[in-house]
Structure formats: C-alpha cells, structure tokens
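DATA SHEET
Item: assembly model
Revision: 1
Owner: S.N.
Input lines:
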Amino acid sequence: MDQKLYMEIKNNSLPLDLKEIPILKYEIFYDRVLAFLKEEGKHCVAYYGVESAGNLKLYCCIADDNNNIVVLFAHELNKDHPVLKSLTPECVPLHIFEREIHENFGVEFVGHPWLKPVRYPYNRKDVSEIMDNYPFYNIESEELHEVGVGPVHAGIIEPGHFRFICNGEKVLHLEIQLGYQHRGIEELFITKCNALQRCILSESIAGDTSIGHSMAHSQLIESLAGIQVSEALQIERCIALEMERLAIHIGDTSALCGDVAYQLGQVVCEALRTTIINTTQFWCGNRFGKGLIRPGGSNYPLNNEVVNEILRVLDDTGRRFFEVTDLIYSLPSVLGRFDDIGILTRQQALSLGTVGMTARTSGILRDIRKTHPFQYYKNYLVRPVILETGDVLARGMERVLEVHESVKIIHELIEIWQQKIKDFRKPVYDYNLKPDSFAISMVEGWRGEICHIAITDNSGNIAHYKVKDPSMHNWMALALAVRNQEISDFPICNKSFNLSYCGNDL
Amino acid sequence: MFKEINVLKSHGIQYVKNLRMQPVSELFRGRPVISDDITKDEIKTVFSACPVMAINGNSGSIDMGRCVFCKECSFLLPNKIRFTNDYRISSNVREALIIKPGSETPLQLDENLIRKEIRRLFKSALKLRQVSAGGDNSCEMELAATGNVNFDFGRFGIEFVASPRHADGIVITGPISENMAEALEITYKAIPSPKIIILAGTDAISGGIFEGSPAIDRRFIEKNHIDLYVPGNPIHPLTYINGVMDLLGVGG
C-alpha cells in the first residue's frame, strides 16, 4: 500500500494526532501541494512554519471546497540550511505565505519573485531588516513619478504605507507595505495562557471582526477540549455573526457614498449602521459584540426580549436600507464613479487565491459557511451572493445583496431558535486541551475566511497558535485592481475592498 | 426626486439632541461599582480571574485604564461588583480612573489640572489628528462615529482633520506598536504648539491585553503629558464626546 501523504480534517471536528501527520520529503510535498492547488475547488487556507526542537516544520492546509474537507501536508527541514524551491512561480496564492515563512525563519525560497517582508514582526529572523528600508519596486524613468501615502492616512483609519508609481494621473503600479499594527498576537496566545485572556486577545485581532475572530477561537478551543455546545447556542452565534456582517456592510455602503461625495447616501447609511450596532449593544453591552462569544457557553444567552428587538430593528433598518440603496444604485453620478472602476478579473482573483467577498464579486464561490460549514450553518443552507464584474460597483452591490441575505438568514434562524431547547450554559474557562494535537477552525467573517490553528504539546498546553485573517490573501488583489486607474480612484477602490491592517499585521 | 423625499422621510431626525444625557442600553459596560463590604477572599477570586490585572489584589479597586470591560468579575460576584451604564468615565487624571470599593460618585475632570491655554485657545474650535498605533480598528470606528449624523460632534467645532499641521492635538488609539512608534512621534512633532494629547481606549491608556508584549513600545506615553484619558474597549463615542466637552468646558 502507498504511504499516506496527507491528513484530512473537517472544519472544527476532532483534532488530529500530531504524530500521525506524515512528514513528506520536500520534492513530494512540492508536487502534491501543487497538484492539489491546480484545481479551482481547492485553495490554500494557511501555509506556515513552526519551530520545534531545532527543526522547522511547515504545514500547508488546503481547503477542498467540493468535499468539505481540509487537507494537511507537512514537511520538516533543518533550521540551519533553510533553502527550498519556491512554489510561488507555479502557484501564486502561496506567495504571501512563503514571504511570511521567509521573514519569520529565514527560509530562502529559490525562485520566489517577490520575497519581501510581510509585517516586520519583533521576532523576525533578520532584525537588520527595518521598516524604513522596505525594498520598494521602482522604475527608472523621467516620465514617471512616485507617490507615497501613509502610514498615517487622512482619515481615521489604521496605518499602512501605499507607494504608487504613476504615469501622469494613472497608476502603473501600487505596492502596499504593512506591519505598523504588529502587536505580537500569535505569541501572546501562548504567553497569556489564561483562557479569558485568550478570548480577549481573539476579540482584539481585528476589532471590526470581533465576533468572527472570537468565534474562530472559541470553536478551536471547543474542538481541542472536546466541548459540545447546544444547537440553540450555535444559532445564537450565527445570528451574532450575521449582525456583524450587516453592520459593516451598511457602514461600508455609507463610506463608499462618502468617497464619491454623495452625502445623502452616506448619512442615511451611517444612521442605519448605528441602529444595528446599538442592537448588538442591547444584546451584550458592547457595540462590536466583544464579550458575546466565549468557549462552551455564553454570558449573554439570547432571550425573547433581545429577539424582539432584533426583529424590530431588522424590519425597520432593512426597509430603510433597501430604500436608500435603491436610490444610491440608480444615480448616474454614483454609478459613474463605481462602474468599471478597480476591476479585479476572475482570472486575477483566482490566481491570487482571494477569499470571501473579494472572490465572490469576481465570480468565485468562496464561502466557508457553505463549503466548510461551522456552527448551525451545518444544518442551514446559505446562498452565497456571486457577482461577476469584479469592479467597485460589484463590491458595492455585493454588500447590498448580502445585507438582504443576512436579514433573511437572521429571520429564519430566529424561527428555528425558538423551537430549540436552551441550556443556558456558562462559558468554560477551565478546559483541558487534548495533548499533541493539531486543530483547525474556520469562520466566514464579513471579509471572508478567518482561520485559527493551534498545536498542543504533550501536556495539553498551546505550543503554537496561528491566526489568518482573510486580508492576508486579499491585499495583493487591491494592488492589482488599481492598476491603470486614476490615482484619484484609489480611495474608493480601497474602501470597496475594506481590508484589515491589524488582521494582517497581528 | 420622489425617491429622495421618501428616503429623507424615513431617515427623519437622527441627531442626538443632548449629548450629556443620551440614554444607552442597560447592559452597556461603563463605570463599575464595587461594594465596600467585598471580602479579602472575594478580592482574591476576582483578582486572579481578571485577564488584565485591572483589579488591585489588596484593595479590590478596579482600574478603568486597564480594564477591558469583559465584566467577568461581575459575573463571579454579581452582588459585589456591577458595571453601571454610566459612560461619562473620561478623566484628565490617570489615578481618577481607579474606582475604589464603595465609591459610587460619577467621574469629574480635575479643573485645576487642565492647562490654562486649552480652554483659552480651543474652546470654540478644536481640530484633532487621530493616530492608530496598533489599534484594532474598533476604537478608530467609534472615533469616526463621533462625527457622524447621530453624534455630530462637529456642532461644537470639534473635528478630526487630515493634516497634523492643521491640528491642535492628537488622539491616540492602540497600545503603540513598536513599528508605529516613530510615525507617531513624527506626527506629534508636526502639530504646532500648544497641543493636546488624548488617549482613547484601554489599549492606549495602559496597553490593555497587549501589556508586556515585546512588539509594543510605550515610551511616547511615558514621556509626554496626557490631557485626557478615555477608557473603553472600545470607547463609546459618548465617553469621548463628554470627556472632550468637559476638557474644553463646553456643552453645559
């Protein structure tokens, strides 16, 4: 019989036994990973390195969307001679992961065209690499000029540096330098070993996705600790996740209007977002849902009073949102700024390995709720919104249509929830994790696929914690989408993607 | 045309009339109240449960500058610790954020410690530059919300501006990541004097959950005078608004 080459794991199922994960020779690892990623229904979820006993282990998790499983490949190499043949020339989506492994551990990926720093972590391999010396791509030409923007931007947003190479008003090339938000989150998951500290940390990975990330963390802990939660609680979590999606999508619609100076659309949507986040606050005391998701139980179980408030707000806000978006997306002055701007073609989106909303607006079905269902989505069929044109207009419309869907989902989930038995269990903080295990947890946040992966040591402590925000895949898509656009269209392009800086920088 | 009228009709009036007294949800986690009969053992319990060492292990006081408002201490001792929905918790004195057992008095700024030039120069217009230094984007969104159609803080001439050259001060969010420390310094230096510093959110005030991380660098906070502390995780827009109004002495 052939030697087993990989492990299969389902999203949030039982963890894998570390010792059972086959370690492949790099040639085999290289071939198998490439062969898997050639198919459209498979994409890389995470590819990262873990130091153990002087060696470096590489784990590559590939989601097989058609069969609802994640396939795990592993390779081990000596830390002293870290030279590997790069997979990127054959499979572009891996570019950012190889860059990360290079930055963290000094692995030379031979043939990688763009082996640049990702986030300048404090524990990077080469500390002589500093933010000021980022190796920007440049073109020697008297006709071209460069524009540098950031890290401090004009608005109240997070820091990042954008370097444009322009020909007149046209953007030839954009390079995005991140890392300003690096707080050492992944290491803190190990050093802050108290369960509650980890929950707070997960809520702070990206505050605009507090619910998404804290859910990914809670699921991960639950699968490592063997905790089952009731169906009622699973539904509550799904409702919270959809509320988060609603709030951000409505807020983004407002921001998109603001960027093209359509004030009515901006202020109306601003007010509507307020009603949604105030409902989340009514439920759990925090407008961003911090404190709502905990492993094993909930401090804020859903009750009829909250349900009635949610239904009341959704009816009113939903109606007003569709009324105003019907107006926004019929105005020539708005459409003229959105239509055909910042196009990310299906081919580009696919070759970059984009996920979430960005992929869906370029005609690719990537939605963890459907392909690797978690929580109550296992029993509830989500209908992902797929658009084809990949421009700002598509990304704007995607939000409107997803708001429609989320409102419908929440209504239907509430109906199901009312039939379920509630057990009102409190959160579990004194859990014991399964030793020597590997567990993966994925959640479809409003941006896309969030992934948390943990490895435990032989006494059940977390030895390694990996966080992947969807932005990690998608930043390069923004850089490509603005090529050949007017530089003045950059703000709406950026806003239409709305990627996370802190989620990338960790 | 008719569509616009319908949208405006549905929109109605959205602005908060009285920013001082706007009610918020019962469950909002604001100023904590600790019972003065809390026992040594009870203090020990909540001290060890607190994820950010916000609770003093001897006195049982809660430091809102460190607190992430997770409310777990209150879940453990519902009869001894409760979080009121009082959002007016900003202060110009760091120590005033420490709530002692038995204290139920709302926070007030120490008028004597407000620099004289602040009210003289900025009372009728205050333009601020926001810098996120490792912030998780929730405090940033709440700060942006202070200028939205609901809170409309611009009504007092208090707004965020793009250029530090146009600003009278800086509002910092996040624990100050090492990678952002220099940019923060440069931005602050670019602001003409006299200038103020406001720390928004627990992460900015104490580092919060990131305290002790080797990836943060808090020297900027240690060497500069802070004019206003705005606690919260994230801050509530009304906490910030009321704090700044108190600092400037505007809005009644």
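QC remark: Chain A has two domains: 7-118, 185-468.
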